[in-house]
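Obj: model holo form, ligand = calcium ion.
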Amino acid sequence: MLYSKSLKKELELIKKLGLQMKNKIFYFGLISILTVVGCSESEKDQALEKTAASGSTTIGQINDQRILAAESEPGNWLSHGRTYEENRFSPLTQINKENVSQLSLAWYKDMGTNRAQESTPIVVDGIMFLTSSWSKVFAIDAVSGETVWSFDPEVPGEVARKSCCDVVNRGVAVYDGKVYFGSLDGRLFALNAENGEKVWEVNTIEDSDRFYTITGAPRVAKGKVFIGNGGAEFGVRGYVTAYDTETGEQVWRFYTVPGDPSLGFEDPIMEVAAGTWKGSNWWEFGGGGTVWNSIVYDADFNNLYLGVGNGSPWTREIRSPGGGDNLFLSSIVAVDVDTGVYKWHYQTTPGDNWDFTAVQDMALADMNIDGVDRKVLLQAPKNGFFYVIDRQDGKLLRANPFATVTWASHVDLETGRPVENPDMDYSEEAKWVLPGPLGAHNWQAMSVDAKSGMVYLPAQDNPLIYSLADEYKKTGIYKRNPGRANLGLEFGRITQLFLDNIDDWPTPKGYLKAFNPLTGEESWSIEIPHYWNGGVVATEGGLVFQGDALGMFTAYDKDSGEQLWQFNTYTSMLAPPITYMIDGIQYVSILTGTGGGDLFSGEPLDPVQKPASLNYNNSGRLLVFKLNGTEEYPQPNLRIRDIPEQLLTNVSNSDMKKGEILYHDFCAGCHGLVARSGGVIPDLRLVAHTDDTFELIVLDGILSSNGMSSFSDVVTKEETKLIHNYVRGRAEQDRLVALGEIASGEERLTWQDLDD
Ligand code: CA
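Output (holo structure tokens):
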């Protein structure tokens, strides 16, 4: 393909601005439909692919017994949550309250990307195994930082559009000399732990026409590897699959929501679940209920717990007209680990109406509750209540709020059901509701101190103004569009409501809390200047570590919340820290680089404090600290954020309004509200594209290998022009603010209230 001179120039400019290409950056927004070449392709997809690589190795020798006895080898981090209980609490004490002030950098490794980092590393026998963006896998010497091997599953760039929340991956599982991970395009891999060679690969996606992804870390137990998918926003049907760790053969699959009843039910429980869905065609929307994060093995009961996600669409009136709980959305489901047969469930949010997933990390513990020793499961899902559930039968024991909750007044412990707040019903008029879809707690890891019963929890008060889709309100009909998210409330419209009601906006707040799930009391709570912060690890050394949006990696006193140590990484963080010990030296590690599901990271208003991603490069780096480390941290790269003058002539206000809606429906999820990027995905105000170039990118997909694939399936040439003009209009407004020609706060964030 020949590029015009002006295009070449523009691409050079993009590079100059630090918006790196492929694995490194330039990206975008929602998905293009991958062209499936004939039916032979999908047949091939179903097939299990094996290579000659042998599974025999001397490293990565983790098995059930070893994970079950993980407390006897505190120096390693053997499974996703360190132990099968997934408490993420380390017994290590070498780094403690007294000496943490001497903690400093031992080494760091550049991950070669500016995209979000979410991985929890596995550390075993001196080697650290972790994933990075685009589902790349690394084995690293955990003492020196040298790369032992790496593996790239070569995820097609176009797949980025199939993912709601950046090209992220949350990690690997290691078992019997193999490393297991899922790729964004839905494949599950087994690699030889010693050399990274592929042993087998299987496609987990059964319907390639729908936008399934994998971002979660697989879990392993009893010779099986378990994985779920993402994609509820785009209308998929959730399920979890167990594969044989040695051969990759499928052992069982558990669906989380029922399919088309006329095709019969996969198992008896699906028929029960179908009784809780109403309407005439609910299965056509896919149902949702994806298990994209938490899967926990419980050796005490031979259970596997599945954390099930939100419904598709989000709004229950459209999803299941006539009501119903819609099992098993927003539920914790216990299945038999060997057969996948249903045992019990607890639904956190019956008839979910807000994107309240129950996929957040689950931890297992033994607790004495009201004088009775119980084996319990702990979860702080998006909906703001902290659940303590009996693992024997799924009975609810506690449900105390851990953040501001307005959608429900409380959870009735007798019925086990939330009592919804009728004032927050948004079926007629728009309502600010807390929490919003980012949740009072999202996937960012919590840490449970089983001895004290305290939980260290990243929490937030972050609302959304919810409103039923206009089209549905007017006509009673809501049409599924296969090329985009189908939420039942459209973000073009929501953004306008957001800006119209900005004076009533409850400003988002972030917290780190020491929370007692039995009493609902906080022993301390710290407000973090930005809401979208990282996961947590607490230690027997009396410390809680967390990386935050401002780029600060901080150690707090576990008992008081007092800040004891801080390191400025100049890079916003989401990933959970871990700690490990090799040859008598304790290390603490964390990945830097933000992104993920923060739709509103574009900062529609001047934020109180900007995340580091707006000021510095979003450098993906693995940082490893020890006492008296001597490595120098590289100087941060300041971002260039000058807005060039844009060519904008003769655009009517009505066209600006149209462009505004289209931009927020298709582009804002990645490029930011009101065309202000949160810093990870390119800020469209910073490059003055010609119309031709803009079209080549949006319609012809010339940057698809970087993740910005064609949107020609969902927007026309005329609409592309409207979007472009809207971006130019916003850029020009913000440029004039920067020049002081318009006062900040006086710029035009919406054209909705203007007449031609
Ligand atoms: Ca969701």
